[in-house]
Amino acid sequence: MGATKTENFTDRQNAIATMAKALGHPARIAIIEYLIKVNTCICGDIVNELPLAQPTVSQHLKELKSAGIIKGDIEGNTICYCIDEKALHKLQTYFENIVTKLEKKKNNCC
Amino acid sequence: MGATKTENFTDRQNAIATMAKALGHPARIAIIEYLIKVNTCICGDIVNELPLAQPTVSQHLKELKSAGIIKGDIEGNTICYCIDEKALHKLQTYFENIVTKLEKKKNNCC
DNA sequence: AATCTTTATCGTAATATTGCAATATTAAAC
DNA sequence: GTTTAATATTGCAATATTACGATAAAGATT
Lengths: 110, 110
Known about the structure:
The structure is a homodimer. Chain A is mainly alpha-helical. Chain A is 56% helix and 11% strand. Chain A has five helices and two strands, in the order ααααββα. Chain A has a two-stranded antiparallel sheet. In chain A, strand 1 and strand 2 form a beta hairpin. The longest helix of chain A has 21 residues, at 85-105. Chain A starts with 10 loop residues before the first helix and ends in a 5-residue tail after the last helix. The mean pLDDT of chain A is 87. The interface between A and B is large, with 53 and 53 residues. Chain A binds a DNA duplex through residues 1-5, 25, 27, 44, 47, 52-63, 74, 76-79.
């Protein structure tokens, strides 16, 4: 085996897992933090910001994009990447919901 | 290669990535959702709840535990697993912070 | 003590991820 | 049109993940 059995889980569970997985690498965390920091999304210098080779960065960007975390549009010979707020909002809501439930239930063991 | 270059990123970036990675699998999302649902954390029937073999579930639990997402204590011949609220709180805060920043900056392209 | 029940670990196969050098692509600059 | 600059793709090696059968461990039950 080695392949995740996505078909056995709900779409929602798979969707959250996909987004979480995309953020499950420090380079990709660094990328989104940089995108947030620079405010604007014209960010041709992302490679210089990261301690990784250009193809590696490109690959991480591709993964973030395919998970819907970032959006990218071609803009001349540079790519304009920026955060997809919808995805991060979903994650935020998801975790907020969990935290709220945990607080409400006050799970009283362990 | 194939190994993540964790040494090139900050501890904070690695910490978030580790937690996100642990949640980057639908089975592990299903596990924490189940733990939340049952309220109590004495949960010997987690295997029956998931469409995976027992060793696989055990492995997923181990990963969640080593990432600090869940806590587990031995309790007779069963294990008492429950959510570690601290970890989820960190994630919630992290994403809330991002969303807040994004709203404030109103990133005006793409 | 033998058995049952539950969870962990080992071993292993299939697959995925990470990282980079080399190369391709594509548009701007000259 | 040639060079430059920026990003993408390809190919590949190293490593990690996913999944499960077999087996081990350890307390509970009889």
